[in-house]
């Protein structure tokens, strides 16, 4: 059936045909930028007026739903980077937050769990499985008895095999490995549902969402459709096991160049917590030679390698190796890094 042959007057949503045609065209190449509209930086002017719940919404939803699980109204937060720091800050609006690690701004390692100051009466223990900005990734699930474990897997879900049964809740903003920004995936243990604080907005109440099959309000249908396509794609490639195999291959190739560069490329992270998804590094020295880093970004762009600028709070370079980045693309980057080093090493 052709769209122009029917009049969709009563459906749950309606968009101008020309907008849909435009979206179709820009799906692959947005306004001749060479990237999809879904891959565009959300800081570009086109997006500044759009608000979403996303992963950040869960920074509020989790404490609002789970803080009252125990009379302590207190939660333990493992802060290993700026995303878990933001989550802890948000939770502190609604109850007590115990930071189990000493405060720091230098997120380069995960202190041994035997040194964590845990509260056995905490309602839950929260951590970020992969800190997207600082590149700190947990290689093992921290296991402690008696306190439900909550993980932000926004940037590494479906990139490694995980035992879901070890968690009270897992959440992930979709945009890294699942689909479009805005749609958020939440997996929650049934016995933790139903204790939301009275001030919890209804849209964040897990009991309401579960009771309505996540259809309490109008769902982001397009994003969910895209999510379905991504899940099918992952299965066709060989599932999460294949994604993990690729992630190891891709990240090892980049870390190998860094580690064999004799200090030309410097990744500040402890080797035990280096992320397979996000690799921040500096060029020239541990503090970074900014002129050289600028050159790296420019020359990389000339070689069609884009978006390598590090997060503004960290500086330097950041490589992000999400599932959709191929091994071959990564090898192009690796070769570029080697060539750049050969050209500029003193
Ligand atoms: N948590 C992590 C680990 C992230 O990387 C991000 C965003 O990049 C968020 C949470 C916030 O997600 P959103 O931007 O969807 O609110």
Description:
The chain has helices at residues 17-26, 54-66, 82-91, 206-211, 221-237, 239-259, 290-302, 327-344; strands at 74-78, 96-99, 125-128, 130-131, 136-137, 149-152, 169-173, 184-188, 265-266, 278-283, 317-320. The chain has 346 residues and is of the alpha/beta class. The protein has a six-stranded mixed beta sheet, with helices on one face. It has a three-stranded antiparallel beta sheet with strand order 9-10-11. The model has no long low-confidence stretch (mean pLDDT 91). Helix content is 31%, strand content 12%. Helix 6 (239-259) runs parallel beside helix 8. The protein has eight helices and eleven strands. The structure holds pyridoxal-5'-phosphate (PLP). Pyridoxal-5'-phosphate is lined by residues 54-56, 83, 128, 132, 152, 154-155, 173, 181. This is phosphoserine transaminase.
Distance between the termini: 65 Å
Low-confidence stretches: none
Largest sheet strand order = 2-1-3-6-7-8
Name the beta content range: 5-15%
| Assembly context of the chains | single chain
Secondary structure tally: strands: 11
SSE arrangement, N to C: HHEHEEEEEEEHHHEEHEH
- Overall form: globular
Structural class: alpha/beta
- Work out the helicity level: 25-40%
Largest sheet: number of strands, sense, barrel closure: 6 strands, mixed
Summed up, the helix count is: 8
What's the overall average pLDDT, rounded? Answer: 91
Q: Whole-number radius of gyration?
A: 22 Å
Bound molecules: pyridoxal-5'-phosphate
């Amino acid at each position: 059936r052709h769209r122009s042959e029917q009049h969709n007057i009563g459906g749950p949503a309606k968009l101008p045909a020309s907008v849909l045609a435009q979206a179709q065209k820009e799906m692959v190449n947005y306004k001749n930028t060479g990237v999809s509209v879904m891959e565009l930086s959300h800081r570009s002017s086109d997006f500044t007026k759009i608000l979403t719940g996303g992963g950040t919404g869960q920074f509020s939803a989790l404490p609002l739903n789970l803080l009252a699980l125990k009379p302590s109204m207190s939660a333990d937060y493992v802060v290993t980077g700026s995303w878990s720091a933001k989550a802890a800050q948000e939770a502190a609006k609604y109850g007590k937050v115990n930071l189990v690690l000493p405060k720091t701004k230098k997120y380069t390692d995960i202190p041994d769990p035997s040194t964590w100051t845990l509260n056995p009466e905490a309602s839950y223990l929260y951590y970020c499985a992969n800190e997207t900005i600082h590149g700190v990734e947990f290689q093992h699930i921290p296991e402690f008895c008696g306190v439900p474990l909550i993980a932000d897997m926004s940037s590494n879900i479906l990139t490694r095999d995980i035992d879901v049964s070890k968690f009270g809740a897992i959440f992930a903003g979709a945009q890294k490995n699942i689909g479009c920004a805005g749609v958020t995936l939440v997996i929650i243990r049934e016995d933790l549902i139903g204790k939301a604080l009275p001030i919890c907005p209804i849209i964040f109440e897990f009991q309401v969402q579960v009771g309505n099959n996540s259809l309490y309000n109008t769902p982001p249908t397009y994003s969910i459709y895209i999510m379905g396509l991504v899940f099918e794609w992952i299965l066709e490639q060989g599932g999460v096991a294949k994604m993990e195999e690729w992630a190891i291959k891709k990240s090892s190739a980049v870390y190998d160049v860094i580690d064999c560069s004799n200090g030309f490329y410097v990744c500040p992270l402890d080797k035990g917590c280096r992320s397979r998804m996000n690799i921040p590094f500096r060029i020239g020295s541990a503090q970074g030679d900014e002129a050289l880093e600028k050159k790296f970004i420019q020359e990389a762009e000339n070689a069609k390698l884009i978006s390598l600028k590090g997060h503004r709070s960290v500086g330097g370079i950041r490589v992000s190796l999400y599932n959709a980045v191929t091994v071959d693309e990564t090898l192009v980057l690796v070769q570029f890094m080697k060539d750049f080093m050969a050209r500029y090493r003193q």
